[in-house]
Amino acid sequence: MLLRNNALRIINSSRSDEGNYVCRAENRFGSSEMTAMLWVKAEAMRVDLSPSRVEVTVGESVVLSCRVSHDPSLDVAFQWLLNQQPLNFQQEGGHFEYTQTQASTVDLMIRTILLKHAGKYGCRVQTSADTVFAEAEVLVRGPPGPPGVVIVEEITDTTATLSWSGGVDNHSPISSYNLQARSPFSLGWQTLRTDPDPVTGDMESAMAVELNPWVDYEFRVVASNAIGTGDPSAPSRGVRTKEAVPSVAPANVSGGNGRRHELVISWEPVSEEFQNGDGFGYIVAFRANGTRGWKEKMVTSADSTTYKYRDETFPPLTPFEVKVGVYNNKGDGPFSGVVTVYSAEGEPREVPSEVKASSISSSEIKVTWRPPNPGPGRPMGYEVTYWKDSEQEESGKKRTAGNETSMVLTGLEGNRVYLITVRGFNSIGQGPASTASTARTRKDPPVQPPDNLVWIQEGTNISLNWDPVKSKDNESDVIGYKVLLSQEGRVHHQVVRTITTSAVLSLPEGGTYVIEVRAVSEGGEGAASSQVRVLTSSGVRVKSGQCSVHSLLPWGLTWTTALLLSVPLVPSASW
After folding, report:
1. Rg of the chain over CA atoms, in angstroms?
2. CA neighbor of 229 nearest in space, from 163, 174, 151, 150
3. Model's pTM, two decimal places?
């Protein structure tokens, strides 16, 4: 059939129609022609996509298989589509995989399927002769979508009536709804109780109960089905529950301490979440043990934690029954349980006994005492005051000793009489001072150092001799000497004490050692002699009988020698 546009249409083609077809055009100027070759294939192409409809759950995997039958002389090309749009395998995060198992079969693997992968999948197959197309439907079951916006229909002091519109069920019926709320006092969203029963899937309204009065809330709803729980709805607008009488009493009511004649009552403040309205405050009630009527005092600050009541008539450590209640503009709330609180004990009233002072050295005096008998006004610590007999007590220096019963006063002047008192103190104040005790510091130690220090080295020993130190009239008498041997770079040292003017030292391991001598008196240690420095080295030993004699000149000339020393270094010994 020749069509109007000069196209040739062949109907019900057969093998006999194969061949070359020539189209020639002519006019008075000449002619032009083109040739087209026609092949007629014995079999039309057919495609089968299976399964044609499939239901899967989120997270599962599915395979769609596209099989084609065609003339084997033709090449085929496959293309996959989702909802009429070509699949982009690179942009789908590995969810789609294309596999050609045979020349005429191509599989599409959908791994860990998501809700967004639901739809109609198409397989388009094309040859040079024709194009065929087949579709399959994939339904993805999953948790429900988010419900519609939550509307607060009614609000009271402890309830909220809520409604919402249902979201998509994602091919699994919604079985229940979960109501949630948050407030400035909650850590994120909290699940609410509903009245009278849990919210089932065929309901889209409910009443939330057990809310706190006078609190700002936002609400949302989460739907669930057999697959799981979906995303929550958008939050409702913020609403505040109505005011109500307080229902929570203060916790941890206690007290004590304070100043003389004071009753101090303390408690933990009630959180704003439980104040239930404006005008919140506390009612502090108390009565002395054994009395009937309660004294009540209003505390108007919601942040208050203490109340102090002063009465000159009650003695220290009077027991009181105490309770603390709450109120707001709607009325009075509950009281806490009754506890016993004692009034302040007052400052110490007894003086420490058996105060004794004894001199230790020219700059130290030791003071000891016994604490007063137990009772009201117990000391938390002690204060020691001391002054020279030529001064007034008001100019004395003070030192505290905590709860100790002894103290060493240091930094004192030598050969001076000091007066010393001790008194107790606590958080209320100070108690009376003891009668002043006296003690004289000892005379200062000698100023003159040991002179003419001579040392003899034999083997691993050093023998020392020096001139005796003579004390002046204003100095303490010498009762002995202290010889100190120390190694440079170390904190340990060896101390030898002697009542004579000589000593023998055992030298330890190799190194540089310093030797000095001090006079010792009742007033303390005197000035140090000039130092002797001895350099020794390991691995060298002085032969038996060999010795060295050195004299330390007054201007401190130092001699050194090399010896093998193996005696261990020992710490300083006490006198």
Report:
1. 53
2. 174
3. 0.57
